[in-house]
């Protein structure tokens, strides 16, 4: 699992870096590189300059050269009604890229244009008047009083350039814009604005739509810039966008997070190195983060430890089921020479006590009161003292011993005494010799 995530992250990283590093100077450069699919591309107009890269729409099919399209938020046909005073209606245009970036594209292009259309009924533009009802604002914030199709000709629309506008109902004179007829007929003034030194349009102003019969619709198209020989781009004074806020920065951050997650999973489920066990034990409560490979020394609180149970070995015949534990060490005495013949002496006095125990932590015998200790003694085995031949019961846990009969003790004592008497008798008796 961890290796799959890590592998995916590495592939994603390689692809992402390739996308970022594969950006183009402009749409024409993308077309020259073999791109044929219209779509959104990342461009970097000044390449090594301070202007950051940005995304535009590149059209490779509608013209011999690539067309750079910069969209805005007012491209839809918009109704204008209820604004009677000159310029009372205000529409500020917001583009997808900054004005500094647009200016760089415009300067890098051979030509640019933007379509402007106004549909009207009982609503005049009045561009030729000293106080027009409508106008548009250019890139630098200046008011422009010419319409699409009449670039640089103040007070005129496209029809005014060719002399095809509607006539004034009173004087029958040809007007400079169709909408200036201000009648009950739906009329249109439209065309392309083509002065790239002032494009794009940044604001639209309208009026003369306050009466019930007065109405208008405006449509402003995106800015279109056509590739050609590049001109010198003016110095860019805008403050560069921080790298972490750019698209490339965000992609790299996401990739780093995915790689980190992949490494953690790989260490947890695959490697489980010794240093990782230490980190796991120290910071995760032991095994909370690495139970999958059992790399800790025991389960964490609330977890069940998995233990492999070995099959129970069968007991052999040599195993003792009674005395499973070894008895305490026997008391050793100096070795005595065994007598040639056992002689019992009955005058040996019996021991004063018949109950003896040995301290668990000492090799000395300790005589205890029978009435105090006998009731607490529980034997779990029997043995014979090899030195004395005495039989005794013992408790393997406490180390206590109890002589089983006192007669054995008397016999053992008499053996020692009789052995000494026989030795003395042998030394004093003189053998007799029979004479022939």
From TrEMBL:
The record ties this protein, via Gene3D superfamilies, to:
2.60.120.1000
Question: What is the superkingdom listed in this entry's lineage?
Answer: Eukaryota
> Can the keyword Membrane be found in this entry's annotation?
yes
Entry keyword Transmembrane helix? yes
Residue spans crossing the bilayer: 243-267
Keywords attached to this entry: Membrane, Signal, Transmembrane, Transmembrane helix
Q: Where is the signal peptide?
A: 1-22
Protein name per UniProt: CNTNAP2 protein
């Amino acid at each position: 699992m961890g290796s799959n995530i890590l592998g995916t992250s590495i592939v994603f990283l390689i692809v992402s870096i390739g996308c970022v590093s594969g950006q183009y100077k402009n749409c024409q450069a993308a077309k020259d590189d073999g791109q044929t699919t219209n779509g959104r591309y990342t461009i970097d107009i000044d390449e090594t300059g301070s202007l950051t890269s940005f995304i535009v729409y590149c059209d490779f099919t509608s013209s011999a050269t690539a067309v750079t399209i910069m969209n805005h938020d007012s491209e839809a046909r918009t109704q204008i009604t209820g604004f009677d005073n000159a310029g009372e209606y205000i529409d500020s245009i917001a583009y997808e890229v900054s004005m500094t970036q647009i200016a760089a594209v415009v300067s890098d292009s051979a030509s640019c244009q933007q379509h402007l259309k106004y549909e009207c009924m009982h609503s005049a533009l009045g561009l030729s008047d000293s106080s027009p009802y409508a106008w548009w604002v250019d890139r630098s914030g200046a008011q422009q009083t010419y319409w699409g199709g009449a670039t640089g000709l103040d007070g005129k629309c496209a029809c005014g350039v060719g002399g095809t506008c509607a006539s004034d109902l009173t004087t029958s004179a040809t007007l400079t814009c169709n909408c200036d007829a201000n009648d009950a007929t739906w009329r249109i003034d439209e065309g392309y604005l083509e002065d790239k030194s002032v494009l794009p349009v940044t604001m639209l102003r309208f009026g003369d739509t306050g009466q019930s019969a007065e109405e208008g619709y405006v449509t402003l198209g995106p800015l279109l810039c056509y590739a050609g020989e590049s001109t010198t781009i003016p110095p860019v004074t805008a403050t560069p966008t921080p790298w972490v806020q750019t698209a490339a920065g965000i992609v790299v951050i996401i990739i780093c997070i995915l790689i980190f997650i992949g490494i953690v999973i790989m260490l947890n489920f695959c490697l489980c190195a010794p240093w990782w066990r230490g980190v796991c034990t120290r910071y995760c409560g032991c095994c909370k983060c690495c139970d999958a490979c059992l790399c800790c020394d025991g389960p964490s609180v609330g977890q069940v430890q998995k233990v492999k149970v070995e099959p129970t070995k069968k007991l052999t015949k040599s195993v003792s089921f009674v005395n499973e534990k070894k008895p305490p060490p026997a008391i050793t005495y100096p070795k005595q020479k065994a007598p040639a013949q056992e002689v019992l002496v009955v005058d040996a006095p019996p021991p004063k006590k018949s109950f003896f125990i040995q301290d668990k932590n000492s090799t000395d015998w300790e005589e205890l009161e029978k009435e105090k200790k006998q009731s607490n003694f529980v034997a779990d085995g029997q043995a014979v003292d090899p030195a004395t031949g005495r039989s005794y019961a013992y408790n393997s846990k406490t180390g206590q011993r109890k002589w089983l009969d006192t007669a054995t003790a008397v016999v053992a004592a008499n053996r020692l005494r009789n052995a000494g008497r026989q030795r003395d008798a042998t030394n004093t008796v003189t053998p007799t010799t029979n004479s022939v």
